[in-house]
Structure formats: structure tokens, C-alpha cells
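FIELD: query
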Amino acid sequence: MVLVQAQTPPREGGHRVTALDMAASGINMKSIEEVHTFKEYCETLTFMASLASTEKVILVGHSLGGMNLALAMENFPEKISVAVFLAVFLPDTIHQPSHVLEKVTRCEKFREMAPDGTWQDTRFSTYGSLENPGTSILLGDEFTSHLYSASSVKDLELAKMLKRPSSRLVHDLSREREVHGQGLRICEETMLDRERR
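FIELD: result
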């Protein structure tokens, strides 16, 4: 959603812009049941391996996209000019990558974002196997409306149309080593970030 809005200014400046959907997200045709690892979820980013040695990209991520950017920075540091993090989940250098996602589920401030302190009409389901379990999340319209309360009606309706069951892939990220990447980062602070201080 943010990528749609973020495309216009760079294009107007003469830059080439490509919006990428991760596996089982947006218009990517995979279902969440087909995605078992975070690396599979981020497979769209492997295009960077085919870039010319002189070519670099600017990556922009929002929400879970912070985890995607960190993985890309870890795997392709020489291909990234800068990574822009907009209101993201961002792994730290101390904990396993799953820590930030596990923490938000328990976070009082996150639950307070919803008027009644719950996930409202969001649905959680299990999928996978005993060896590789997963929990999918489908944000409800009511919860999505709350998240987009500062957005236009057009943006809210587009977000509702594109939402699909997704996963935080915590089960996989809890087995990962540190994933925090290297290189220049720009982090956009939101009103919620300022309130948390």
C-alpha cells in the first residue's frame, strides 16, 4: 500500500520504480500454505543477484517489509544504495529475528491501537504440519479501518481489496541466526513511534 504512494515522486524525478509483492502477498499468486520459510516469502528479492555490478537499488519497506529489507541487506549489501524503513518491524542485533514479531503480539501499545484493545475482527488460523507449523493472520475490515484511520477512503478500500491471509513466519524466524543486514538505513518515525518513547 505504501509502495503505491511512494512510487510517484521517484518516477516524476526520472527514476525507475518497481513495486514488489512478496510470496503470498498482494498480487503474488502463491498461497500462504505454499510458503514455509521467511526466505521463501522473500524470494522476490532474489532479482538483485542478477543486477549489473555497477547497478544499485534503493529499497523501501513498510510493516513486515522491514524484515524483508533486513534480509536483503544481509544477502545483497553491495547491491543496495540505501534501505528506507517506513513504520516497520525491524530486527535488532541482540535477539533472534522472530523477537520483534513475538513482542508486538504481546505489546500493550499495539493492542491499544484498536479501540477495544483487541485484534477485533482479525482471524487467526493454523496451517502446515507438526514439524513445520504456521499461524495465518487475516486482518479484518474493522481492524484494517483502524490501521488506516489517517488514510484516504481510496487507500483504505485498496488495502481491503488486497488483504490476504499472511503469516509472520515466527516459527521459521525463531530458528534463524541474526538477520539485520548492513549498509545505510533511513528510518521514518511515525506518531505511534513517538508515543512509545
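FIELD: remark
The chain has nine helices and six strands.
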